[in-house]
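Entry type: protein chain
Record version: 2
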Amino acid sequence: MPPERRGAQPRTSTFSIVASDPQNGACGVAIQSKFLAIGALSAWAEPGVGAIATQALINVRYGAEGLALLRAGRAPEEVVARLTLADHGRADRQLGVVDVNGRSASYTGERCAAWAGGRAMPGCAVQGNLLVSDATTVALWDTFAATADRPLGERLLAALAAGQAAGGDRRGQQSAALKVVQPAAGYGHGGVVVDLRVDDHPTPIAELARLHELHRRYFGSTPAEKWLPVRGALAAEVRECLDRLGQRTGNLADDLMAWAAIENLEERVDGADCVDPVVLDHLRRMVGVAHLAR
């Protein structure tokens, strides 16, 4: 890596967590900063490989080059060593790395603005700079450890919120991001479970949580045993709702899918013998909205 001129770019006061779940192969990163669109530069993850957060005086190349090293089988500690050794600006860098097997590493250069630091444990690395205190990284760490029964994205989001509640970025809030990847998972089985960014907002973590809830509604899944049989009164209600919303071919399955495609809920529909409760709730709400609009 060529040397970079110190001070040529703004320093990002940031805190982040990178983590993986070796049980299902999920990897992810969550990050918040008093910096515009931090997720565009700092949050990196690849299905089946790992996740990286690059921050402080950001070296964007740490993202792609770090993932390439992980992909080649290098351990996170070696990835950190290789990236920083080749970088004349390493004293101003901060970096968190985790691989798909749960190995992790965190690096803080000696010129990162106080409070700055991080730590790594199996499955997780946390780091931050220009923080109120180390309470932020402790909260990230403790919250992640205490939420092992939840999906990775929820754990990362909870950790981020706890870090902010513990003091967070000394300069305040502006942007946040959450990215989780997993082989053959997510929309169309493309490997991206969730990839959300809040680029400029007074409370970006709260806004990120709102977006995550929408993402869960549109792209999540409900266990098959919790779907409701579409028979009797429920079948009549679904038919009436679809009629009111303009889906009137008479084929319930086709009409339900046509409406679901408009609402981006098609991955939660599988014929019309049973209905996902999330789909039913959305259908009822849309009928209510259409009624109020008259």
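Comment: The first strand starts at residue 14 and ends at 21.
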